[in-house]
Design a protein that fits this description.
The chain has 8 helices and 11 strands. It is an alpha+beta fold and about 350 residues long. Helix 1 (about 5-20) packs across helix 2 (about 30-65) and helix 2 (about 30-65) runs antiparallel to helix 3.
Length: about 350
């Protein structure tokens, strides 16, 4: 569909909704809410369409003046300046319109479940996993999001074997979805006496949070095991079988929870994560099919893909998917400058989808 056809479609749909809403008295509350939401989403697009149409109309008028017989030199000069200015403006405004017309990721507005796990590198990897978890926590604070820790498995000296949290707020998944993958760190560990740089890694998974209605899980598809919770080093921290391990038999996905003293609460947390992982696995399958014919994408979200390197000696962070390097390591880990990476990844994704003609 051409840009002009899309513009006409947006304006026509807005007119239809406004006409339907004029008869709101005959609607159910659900239908009224649905139409109001759609109109709210269409409004900025329709406003951009109007802006493009106005510039196009002004441009036509300026071009007409240039072609008029007998126009004096001053008028022609003004008309040419107007044509040049409006020609540049319409390119930029049409680009902004194309961005607004891109199909929305239906999960963008969802909350997210963040999972960080230590990878290769032993204790240093666990310390790095803790650094990353803290980075996202501070990033959430910056946006006013709620960051609720669900599980932390500590190593005893400040490192995390694994940690999970629910992040609640506006457009959380949209901002964090490109963080999934392997994050690599290069630095000299505090325990290293020779000053040698070590390389280790941690894996980040950002999953869209889903509700019971989004994923239908049959009780017969679950194997639930209960056991006693344990702390760092394996010592028992609970005398009852409160820890829960749930296996989803059709997919083989396993989730364990032991942070709560109540078996019921641990099961509820485990089911929340299980739903998110099952949904994410299906989402990844659909995305992989779509990406099969797409080149230069912003990563596949594959957990095995190394996406970013944090080099402490040089104070730099490099995102390998878009060849972006920033010498702001401290500010990125503090959650302050992570926006610069997130925004660049989102822009690259938009550019790739525009190149595909996804409007």
């Amino acid at each position: 569909m051409s840009l002009q056809e899309n513009m006409a479609r947006v304006l026509a749909r807005r007119g239809e909704i406004e006409q339907e809403l004029s008869q709101a008295a005959d609607m159910t509350p659900d239908m009224l809410a649905k139409l109001s939401r759609e109109l709210s989403e269409l409004r900025p697009v329709a406003e951009q369409v109007a802006k493009v149409q106005k510039i196009a109309s002004d441009l036509d008028e300026a071009k007409y003046l240039l072609e008029e017989d007998g126009a004096d030199a001053d008028l022609l000069e003004m008309a040419q300046l107007e044509v040049d200015t409006l020609s540049e403006a319409i390119i930029e405004e049409e680009h902004q319109l194309k961005l607004l017309l891109l199909p929305k990721d239906t999960d963008d507005a969802r909350n997210a479940i963040l999972e960080v796990r230590a990878g290769t590198g032993g204790e240093e990897a666990a310390l790095f996993a803790s650094d990353l978890f803290g980075m996202y926590q501070r990033f959430a604070t910056k946006y006013g999001w709620r960051f609720e820790v669900m599980e932390i498995s500590e190593t005893g000296i400040g490192g995390y074997k694994e940690a999970a949290a629910t992040i609640t707020g506006s457009d959380v998944f949209a901002r964090l979805k490109f963080e999934s993958g392997v994050h690599r760190v290069q630095r000299v560990p505090e325990t290293e006496t020779g000053g040698r740089i070590h390389t280790s890694a941690a894996t980040v998974a950002v999953l869209p949070e889903v509700e019971d209605v989004d994923i239908d899980i049959q009780e017969s598809d679950l194997r639930v095991d209960v056991f006693r919770a344990s702390g760092p080093g394996g010592q028992s921290v609970n005398t009852t079988d409160s820890a829960v391990r749930i296996t989803h038999l059709p997919t083989g996905i396993v989730v364990s929870q032991q942070d709560e003293k109540s078996q019921h609460k641990n099961r509820a947390k485990a089911m929340k994560i299980l739903r998110a992982r099952i949904y994410d696995a299906e989402r990844a399958r659909v995305e992989a099919e779509r990406a099969a014919s797409r080149k230069g994408q912003v990563g596949s979200g594959d957990r095995s893909e190394r996406i970013r390197t944090y080099n402490f000696p040089q104070g730099r962070v490099t995102d390998h998917r878009i060849n972006l390097t920033l010498y702001k390591l401290d500010r990125i880990l503090a959650g302050e400058a992570l926006d610069e990476v997130v925004d660049a990844l989102a822009a690259e994704d938009q550019a790739a989808r525009l190149a595909e003609g996804q409007m």
